[in-house]
Amino acid sequence: MSDEQGRTTGTGRLVTGLAWVLLLLGLWLWGRSVTGVPQNPAGPATGDVAGLDPQVRLPPAAKPLGSALPQRIDIPALGVQAPVVARGLDSRGAVDPPPFDQPGVVGWYRSGTTPGAAGTALMVGHVDTATRPAVFYKLSSLQPGETVRVVRADGRVAGFTVDDIRVLARDDFDARQAYGPRKPGRAELRLITCGGAFDRTSHSYTANVVVSAYLTGTGP
Fold first, then answer.
1. Tens digits of per-residue pLDDT, 38-81?
2. Which single residue of 2, 106, 116, 199 could bond 158 by disulfide (Cβ 3.0 to 4.6 Å)?
3. DSSP string spanning 104-156?
4. Is the keyword Membrane assigned to this protein (predicted)?
């Protein structure tokens, strides 16, 4: 390899590394403040990671799909059927959640993986508003083995199986633990909302609920 080629390769690796660092920074900010403005003091409590019941046998991972935009998310165990909208980053570098006047809408991080494609697709929803529960109010009650379906713009339905649920404190929020792949090569999905106690001083919750699921089937 020539010196020039070495410099080019080194520069490429530096740019990639910086992009990864910036993404993790944005996700860390997301984890700390994505749904942190509701005024309702009620909400899910901080808890341990939901362990896998020995009686629950998780299915094998399905082959990832190509990219296609998400349109709707269905979570049968929670009675959730919600439209999905693409969201970017706000002025602070955190992912911009759906507006509070759209409590039944789920946001998908449009600069990341599309649900069903290889990698980790990120979706966020509010836990509540000042007056009522929102789309992910019961997210922390999901159990390993339960199903999440995402309807895509290509007409296919990506079926995911939940494999763990984590409640992560915001004070020491770890973006890699929350959003990094559980197993390389899979199509994975993260559903994120607020958890823990409601802090009246900061008007935010003290933790985030992070549900992990992976692609196990597809349908028309």
1. 334 344 443 445 555 667 789 999 999 999 999 999 999 999 99
2. 116
3. T-EEEETTSPPTTBSEEEEEE--SB-SSSB-TTTTGGG--TT-EEEEEETTS-
4. yes
Least Cα distance to 157 among 218, 96, 107 occurs for 218
Sign of the CA dihedral running 129, 120, 142, 216: positive
CA atoms within a 13 Å half-sphere pointing along the CA-CB vector of 21:
6
CA–CA dist 125, 15 (Å, integer): 31
Contact 115, 70 (CB under 8 A): yes
> Is residue 134 within 8 Å of residue 125, measured between CB atoms?
yes
- Give the number of other CB atoms < 10 A from CB of residue 7: 10
Query: Which residue ranges form the domains of the chain, and what is each CATH number?
Result: 70-219 (2.40.260.10)
The overall longest dimension of the chain from CA atoms, in Å, is 64
Cut 0.85: pTM above it = no
Question: Buried b vs exposed e over 17-36: b needs ≥16 C-beta within 10 Å?
Answer: eeeeeebeebbbbbbebbbb
| Of residues 79, 76, 80, 124, the one with CA closest to residue 100 | 124
- Beta strands 187-199 and 157-169, pairing class: unpaired
Contacts of 50 (CB under 8 A, 6+ apart): 142, 143, 144, 164, 165, 166
Amino acid at 27: L
